[in-house]
Amino acid sequence: MSTTTTAVLVPLLPFLSALAGFLTGRRVPGLVRPLAVLPTLAAAVLAIVVACRQGGGEALDAATRLTPTGSVPIDLALHLDGFAVLVAVLVGVVASCVQLYSTAYLRDDPRYPSYAALVSLFTSAMLLVVYTGDLMVLLVGWEIMGICSYFLVGHYWETEAARSASLKAFLVTKLGDVPFLIGIFALAADAGTFRISGIVSTAASGGLQHPTLVALLLLAGVAGKSAQFPLHTWLPDAMAGPTPVSALIHAATMVAAGVYLVARLLPVFAASAAALVVLAVMAAVTMVGSALAALAQDDIKRVLAYSTVGQLGYMTGALAVGDRGAAVFHLISHGAFKALLFLGAGVIIHAAGTNSLAAMARMNGLAKRIPDAYWTMTVALLALAAIPPFSGFFSKEAVLGAAEHAATGDAHGIPAAAAGPAGWTVLIAGLVTAVLTAGYATRLWLLAFHGKGAEAPDHGREPVAINGVLWVLFLPTAALGLAAWKLPDWFDGRSLTPGLTTSVLSTGCALAGALVMYAAWRRTAALTARTPLGAVAADPEAAPAVSEIEAIASHEPAYGTIAAASDPADPGRLLLGPLHRHAVTGFHLDAVYSTLLVRPTRAAARLARFLDREVVDAYVRGAATAPGLLGAAVRRAQTGNVQTYLGALLAGSVVLAVAAVLVATGA
């Protein structure tokens, strides 16, 4: 089988799995799990085969004309280079782990058939985005992911949090997709093609007429899909969905799509110094703001969600300084350890019976109850904090190294006017974020696994399908950094090995953040016993998904908000001080959007409804009333009395005769 045929099967198999799941899930429940796991696993294996065959060599392109449009044609195109094949391996492996994990996590869920089919469709859409060589086909996968995220985030639709989160995710991402679509058409008009290779060639040769406008329009869609400031607010709320969905969205699909798109179209952005500076500023604000917000969250999954926003900021920062190899390296590394962190968080929520770190801090022995999750998550948190020798250290160092090169005037492929400002912005923000990242990673580890109080409930070991997946993801989390010396052959050839200056600075920042957080925890730990807090409403004996639903539903009634808990023993509260109340709400961006967008939109909707009912409908009702009144008047003349009809006829004849006489005499 040729490489092209094998690559076509990679997104096709999950799509067929989704189709079969939708058609037969309810009728043949015994086939649901095999249909969910096996095709996705086969797609992952085929993605690895394609990657091995491509081997980082020359890009492989294949295309067939999908439809003539009369102007710019649309092609069903395939583009396989080092970036595409490695990202596809990440998507296939993480999706397979999520499907396998879900068979145990959602084992008693009556909606599991539709859930599994949607996960397969989600996976297929992302693989289509990764492999396609045509922007219009990419747009299809891009929008399918948006629809799938709406249904998957709202899977626990019984809870208000899930219903509102799914709607918010859909609307916020669509807000970015509108200018994104305009940008695609503007780009195709400038380049004369939707083919990515043709667009890149045109951009590299300076053939784009409006590079800044196009880049900023595309950036709006990227900000929405990859949860970058200011369109990142949907991602923390999306934690109301099932934990495996969170792992899939954060690690390998939806939020990775925007970063991957910019990497594919980097020459378009590099054609505009202004666009690169905007991208750098967006990355810097995203990194620092999300890390501060993560320090204040009480829901363990919201901590990880804000962490994802920040790590995506590192990736967009690398793109802003013109190094897509560093960006995709961090995307792949982050995908491994973030999937592990989310799936491990699902184990913690099940074991503790709560998603609240404040409640876990008052629970003793949780680490002993779930040793697999404890050890694998410990390594994943070290990777998140960029502690050597784990994968996150090497990929984050590649980003900081690229920023250092740009700041010192050694950047390649981007305008000199953008290199200095973008480089210094990303470098300084990256180092500040390194301190904060280590801080919130340490806080999560201490509060979740080293609490003091009543013994954590013991419900035995988690199923093999859950623990096995954690150890599978542990391998790349621990060892993927070793690929830093080989990946340049697959990417653009630029070195990804750590530099001395940034390695020392970032590792020192990470250690400082961890030590400061540890000291704050030691100071506040005594308050844990003196301040009873924490509602464990879920039943650890229930299926994991049931525990999660109850934990999500009980958090706001117990603490007053879905995001935080008024815990004086929280070291994050101590360190943030007055900033805590702002950080816990994501710096009030939702309130700003409510004032600037939601309320005016609702007011406009009320006005439109009033005009429709009281003005437009008034004309409609009037048009119906007038004939009705005329008909009523005519109906009164229809008495059925012959003498009345003859009298009216005689009177009419007399009137006509008199009128005729008057006309004839000229009166």
Principal-axes geometry comes out as globular
Distance between the termini: 105 Å
Helix segment tally: 27
Assembly annotation? single chain
Please give the largest β-sheet. Answer: 2 strands, antiparallel
pLDDT < 50 stretches: none
Overall number of strands:
4
Q: How would you state the average pLDDT, rounded?
A: 89
Spatially, the strands of the biggest sheet line up as: 1-2
- What fraction, in percent, of the residue positions are helical? over 70%
Structural class: mainly alpha
Strand portion? under 5%
Q: What gyration radius follows from the Cα positions, in whole Å? A: 31 Å
Protein described:
The chain crosses the membrane at residues 6-23, 35-56, 76-100, 112-131, 137-157, 169-188, 208-224, 245-263, 269-296, 303-321, 327-352, 373-394, 424-447, 468-487, 499-521, 645-664. Residues 68-115 form the NADH-Ubiquinone oxidoreductase (complex I) chain 5 N-terminal domain. Pfam families: Proton_antipo_M (PF00361), Proton_antipo_N (PF00662). It is found in: Endomembrane system; Membrane. It comes from Streptomyces hesseae. The structure is a single chain. The protein is mainly alpha-helical and 667 residues long. It has helices at residues 3-24, 32-54, 82-105, 112-131, 135-153, 160-191, 196-204, 211-225, 234-237, 243-251, 254-264, 266-270, 273-296, 300-320, 324-352, 357-360, 366-369, 371-384, 391-407, 416-449, 464-479, 500-530, 544-559, 571-576, 580-583, 589-637, 642-665, and strands at 60-67, 74-80, 363-364, 454-455. Strands 1-2 form a two-stranded antiparallel sheet. Strands 3-4 form a two-stranded parallel sheet. Strand 1 (60-67) and strand 2 (74-80) form a beta hairpin. The longest helix is centred in the C-terminal third of the chain and has 49 residues, at 589-637. The protein is globular.
